[in-house]
Fold this protein.
Amino acid sequence: MNALTDQEFSHFQRFIFDAAGITLAPTKKALVEGRLGKRLKLHQLDSFGDYFKLLACADDPDEVQMAVDLLTTNETYFFREIKHFDFLRERALAARNRSQPFRVWSAASSSGEEAYSIAMVLSDCLESTPWEVLGTDISTQVLRGATRALYTMERARHIPPAYMRRFCLKGTGEHEGRLLIDRSLRSKVLFRQVNLNVPLPHLGQFDLVFLRNVMIYFSDETKREVVSRVLATIKPDGHFFVGHSETLNNISQAVTPVAPSIYRKVA
């Protein structure tokens, strides 16, 4: 198998930008070579150029999805950026006893830890008030893992002890070191594939949307397009969460900051 050339790398930069809006920096060349190399071996191809031609012929949508999955960075854990969940708790408590469902969208949910963290807070705070959590991602591979809801204990180190007891089943024997999200909580979280870089399917309106640690890979133009689509799903005075290294300043005039990396949609 030949090494990935600069020209071939540029082809995959365009491929993942067109598919997911992700801008791959030149420093990611080794990552692309490492992640896609296994597909070359599987298909018995000699070069990355041959693999790109395989993707470009569009005869195998499953292979295209596999390439997208491999080139999409997915790193997360439960209760990442805890102050966001403190704010979520405040908003959930304020919504208690209302009749309409309290809806939250984890818009880049990866393997599901964020969506289940949200669900734990809502289950704890809302009691008889109806609530819904939607988790979406472009990668079908990570969504399959999210649906299984089986995780290593390392990813669960920030789950509050009371939530661990209430919502998680610790593995024993051959499953030692892993946990399973309780069925009652799993049943309240819906996962589906959504590409944020194209017009969105009908998802309804949300009280809060989490879109964290994804836009750092987007160009400014892509950020504006994605934020505009997501904002259309947020209720007036609803909230938009981004990662602490991200900002909506100069991206949208339709939001106002209320806390670090938390924005309110202007009514």
DSSP finds ten helices and ten strands in the chain. The two ends are 56 Å apart (CA to CA). The mean pLDDT is 93. Residues 6-20 form the longest helix (15 residues).
